[in-house]
Amino acid sequence: xxxxxxxxxxCQAIEAxxxxxxxxxxxxxxxxELGFKETKTASKVEEIFRELGISYEKGLALxxxxxxxxxxxxxxxxxxxxxxxxxxxxxxxxxxxLSGAAHCCGHNVQIAMLMAVGRxxxxxxxxxxxxxxxxxxxxxxxxxxxxxxRNKLREEGKITYLGGKQELIHLGAFDDIDMAxxxxxxxxxxxxxxxxxxxxxxxxxxxxxxxRGKAAHAAMAPSEGxxxxxxxxxxxxxxxxxxETFREEDYVRFHPIITQGGDLVNVIPEDVRMESYVRxxxxxxxxESNKKIDRALRAGGDAVGAEVSIQSLPGYLxxxxxxxxxxVFRGNAEVLYGPSQVVDGAHEAGSxxxxxxxxxxxxxxxxxxxxxxxxxxxxxxxxxxxxAYIKSAQALAMTIIDLLYGDGxxxxxxLHDYKPLLTKEKYVEFLNSFNQAN
Length: 438
Hints:
Keywords: Hydrolase. This protein has 13 helices and 21 strands. By secondary structure, it is of the alpha+beta class. The protein folds into two domains: 3-201 and 318-429, Aminopeptidase; 203-316, Alpha-Beta Plaits (2-Layer Sandwich). Strands 1-2-6-3-7-18 form a six-stranded mixed β-sheet. Strands 11, 12, 13, 14, 15 and 21 form a six-stranded antiparallel β-sheet that branches. The protein is elongated.
């Protein structure tokens, strides 16, 4: 079968299965789970793998599920990634009433498109024409939330790193994969849905900050206390005073939350805790801005005599989309969406652990604009369901065929010229350089 005929057949199969695809996405949407806790979602993936006869590994980085479909040869392996977790947004209509988790991030759509591609590859017999394997990888914990909880898992030895792909890279789960594809949903302010090719995005360092003061009666004896909440507020103000020193091209961001601000209103706050990220566009800018922010946070404690503990944790690396892989994807996206609806992306100030993967293998992370309402907000709704679930899966499937068809020349050409930004060893070394408290 010729390549274009195979693409057409794959697209028809995905369209024919649309009701199953929608149903899976809706099922995951109704049972959102936070990172490293996605047991129900992982079970749904496993059930479909068993139904399709796909061999798989489970329990990777606690909840990850990795299925492999063999080609006529196994020269190279291309992975499609889908994320299992939700984000915390208690005000969203689809939020879990207990945990506050909600799929206002689009990850439920990612898992559905992942399974749509796998089902179509098998039903059409497409793997007989591909000189490589396809990995369907449902990965945990992309949203870097509940930092204290995850740090406790790390201290207990259950994980080493706080992000799902970080942990999977560390465990060797990507060692047998050559390149990776992933689509993420995006808010759309235009009339029609469109694809934005990925470019670059910020990385970040996770932070846990503790201010230790001294309790005293807030009205009768405030002079006997040391107000840890005031220390935290001064620390945040100190960071704000440095914002003009952050270069615009570095896209530095610092956005803390206070997770513990005191115990009783009539007691001087003794134990105050914050979580935050320090984000920036490059690894060098991350390191430099992190030093400045730590200095300001410590100064808040010094100002009132409070003790300060700052724990820097490995966050995510900046995202670098592989341009050769982007071009292969572009050709298929233009067929599905129209050339005018495929645009080049600009730098994103947000972050993803797919950035970590992009440092060690060719990776792309295009954005599909089909959502109304802001990401991670209560207004988030998938406005164009067919585009989100069906066209996205078709674009991924067509790209896989381009890469692996025949003797897999397209994949070989990309890998022949590819030089990783970091080896796996250097990557782990960099992560470990931030895994410290001071």
